[in-house]
Specification:
Radius of gyration: 61 Å
CATH class of the domain at 144-235: Alpha Beta
CATH architecture of the domain at 144-235: 2-Layer Sandwich
Number of helices: 6
CATH topology of the domain at 144-235: Dihydrodipicolinate Reductase, domain 2
């Protein structure tokens, strides 16, 4: 069999041309399209990874900020709770202090009221006793109250112990001016003379006297010389009465100052068991 080399060569040339044409006009565009698609897909995948990483970062940032917000909220709640407790305690302390101050003022007002009432009562009692004694002595004994007071004063002077009498005598001797005799009333001349004679006899001296009235004495006579004193007064007999009145009023104040007891709450009745 003979080979037609011209035909073979023509077919080879045709085949090469066909391959070149296919490669140039068909395969290469397809390959380029495939490469472009692969590149686009890779880019999209890279973008997706970047966006996923960004989303994860944003999620982590959100979680971190949320945790910080929870911590700040807890801290603010604790701070607000502490401040509320502190303010509550401060208000309680102020209320307690105000109550104590009010109670102290009330106690002080009660004490002042009792003190003034006590003074008024004692003064009125002394005046009434003085008036009753004056009338009783005048009606029963036939002597004025002044006479009986002077007699009691002279008796007190005579009953002095030796030490007190010596001290009073020295004060009278060293006095640079007349010895002062004070009484709640104007002493008549006979009573002044009786006091003068009693002093001269007691101390064996001629003692100059100066008489003054002192309403605050209320039924009493007082002799003073250089700080030494001897006195007699109806008030001496009212000391026990004054102490009794003070004790009575003090007990009344203490009772009134005690807080009222709060009524106890009645216990709740237990529910009765149901019978089957």
């Amino acid at each position: 069999m003979l080979i037609d080399w011209f035909t073979v060569i023509a077919q080879v040339v045709n085949f090469l041309i066909l391959v070149w044409l296919l490669k140039h006009f068909l395969y290469q565009p397809i390959l380029n399209a495939i490469d472009a698609r692969e590149e686009r897909i890779a880019k999209e995948l890279a973008d997706a990874d970047a966006k996923r990483a960004e989303a994860q970062q944003e999620h982590d940032e959100f979680e971190r900020k949320n945790a910080e917000f929870d911590q700040q909220r807890a801290a603010l709640m604790d701070k607000a709770t502490d401040e509320a407790k502190g303010e509550r305690q401060r208000l309680l302390d102020e209320a307690r202090q105000a109550a104590d101050t009010l109670s102290a003022k009330r106690q002080e007002a009660l004490r002042n009221e009792v003190h003034h009432l006590n003074k008024s009562l004692i003064a009125r009692t002394q005046q009434e006793v003085f008036a009753i004694a004056r009338k009783a002595l005048t009606d029963l004994a036939g002597a004025s109250l002044e006479e009986r007071m002077v007699a009691a004063f002279i008796s007190r002077l005579a009953e002095m112990d030796e030490e007190s009498k010596a001290a009073l005598g020295e004060s009278i001797k060293s006095a640079s001016e007349a010895v002062l005799v004070r009484s709640a009333f104007e002493l008549p001349e006979p009573q002044r003379t009786a006091i003068q004679e009693a002093l001269n006899e007691t101390f064996s001296l001629q003692i100059p006297l100066r008489f003054e009235t002192a309403p605050e004495q209320i039924g009493g006579i007082e002799l003073s010389a250089n700080g030494q004193k001897v006195a007699w007064s109806i008030a001496d007999y009212l000391v026990s009465l004054e102490k009794s009145v003070e004790a009575l009023l003090k007990d009344k104040v203490e009772v009134s100052a005690q807080p009222e007891a709060k009524p106890k709450a009645k216990p709740k009745a237990k529910p009765k068991a149901k019978r089957d």
